[in-house]
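User: tokens in, sequence out, please.
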């Protein structure tokens, strides 16, 4: 098993410092996720806005590893559930716990699982080469889309069915998200080259 980027660049001499660094890294990724949510573009033909969140979720998890990546997204959802304005701004979708029950709830609730998957693959070295980083992020993105489309299928009112969920929650986003993924997948290998630790 490989070390994560976080384990490579953090202090290892004192467990107390290591714990503080890990907590700080989780908070940092949580904040980045909330910031990415604010860069959203409402689309007239779907209740799901276009955001940069999935890429932040996957990159953050690749850097943190599965457990801390998962924790960062659980914390993000907890903050949103508590009513903090961390979810994407929307004229029709509420902040707070109701957002998780709305049409975008499936995507949001899939973030911890996608983060765990991306972090798990990063622990196995998938984040160190561009091609495997693409595969890793595609796995995470598939989990996000799977959760989102499944939730739209079963929770939309009025019901829109699977084909309607695909039209509203997958088709408009897959090409731009794949393009974002192809760019984002180069970040982790570049960071590993900078640290000089890609082969470890």
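Assistant: Sequence out:
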């Amino acid at each position: 098993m490989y070390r994560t980027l976080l384990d490579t660049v953090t202090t290892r001499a004192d467990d107390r410092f290591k714990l503080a660094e890990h907590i700080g890294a989780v908070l940092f990724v949580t904040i980045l996720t909330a910031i990415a949510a604010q860069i959203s573009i409402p689309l007239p033909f779907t209740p799901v806005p276009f955001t940069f969140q999935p890429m932040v979720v996957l990159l953050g998890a690749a850097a943190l590893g599965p457990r801390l990546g998962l924790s960062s997204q659980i914390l993000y959802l907890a903050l949103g559930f508590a009513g903090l304005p961390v979810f994407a701004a929307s004229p029709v979708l509420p902040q707070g716990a109701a957002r998780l029950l709305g049409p975008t709830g499936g995507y949001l609730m899939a973030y911890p699982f996608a983060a765990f998957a991306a972090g798990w693959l990063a622990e196995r070295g998938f984040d160190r080469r561009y091609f495997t980083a693409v595969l890793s992020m595609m796995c995470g993105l598939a989990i996000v889309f799977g959760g989102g489309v499944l939730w739209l299928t079963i929770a939309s009112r009025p019901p829109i069915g699977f084909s309607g969920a695909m039209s509203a929650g997958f088709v408009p986003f897959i090409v731009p998200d794949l393009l974002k993924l192809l760019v984002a997948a180069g970040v982790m290998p570049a960071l590993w080259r900078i640290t000089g630790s890609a082969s470890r």
